[in-house]
Design goal:
5 strands, alpha+beta, single chain, 2 domains, 7 helices
Length: 157
């Protein structure tokens, strides 16, 4: 399968951009930096704990609130990579309770707490209902502090 930029649709030829689902030019416009390769001396648990302590969506060097926007063509622009394709190979969506919003919720929580925890007991589906389904078509912003509060209430932070 050919990797395409989720923002502009161009073919992605290089890693790590193809793995993130966004091209370097589009990523720069959104303030996204490529993830660094994990250090061998840091365990996965320590790396996830470090991300949580910083707060927000963490990719590479940046930690930031979640931004959901529409491009000129109406296509979703989100500052989280489409790394897990489970429900919607066509990409992310919001504003209703379907496969695109489920995919977005799963990918957000996977970045925040890891894929295993995001899937446990349908956590990402509840996140979808609480944050993603009610978002207006135009999009908006979800504060990292709101996501962290939601996760704390469920004993995950």
């Amino acid at each position: 399968m050919i990797a395409r930029c989720m923002r502009c649709g161009r073919i992605l030829k290089s890693e790590p951009w193809a793995g993130m689902g966004i091209g370097s030019t589009c990523a720069a416009k959104l303030g996204i930096t490529p993830p660094r390769a994990p250090r061998v001396s840091v365990s996965k648990g320590q790396e996830e704990k470090s991300k949580r302590q910083k707060g927000g969506i963490s990719m590479g060097r940046g930690v930031f609130d979640l931004s959901l926007q529409r491009g000129i063509d109406g296509m979703p622009i989100v500052n989280v990579p489409h790394a897990i394709v489970r429900h919607s190979p066509d990409g992310f969506e919001w504003g209703y309770s379907g496969s695109g919003p489920a995919e977005l919720a799963l990918n957000i929580l996977s970045v925040m707490v890891g894929t295993e925890k995001a899937q446990k007991d349908g956590l990402y589906q509840q996140f979808k209902r609480d944050f993603i389904s009610g978002m207006s078509y135009e999009g908006g912003e979800i504060k990292a502090s709101d996501i962290e509060k939601w996760l704390r209430e469920r004993g995950l932070l």
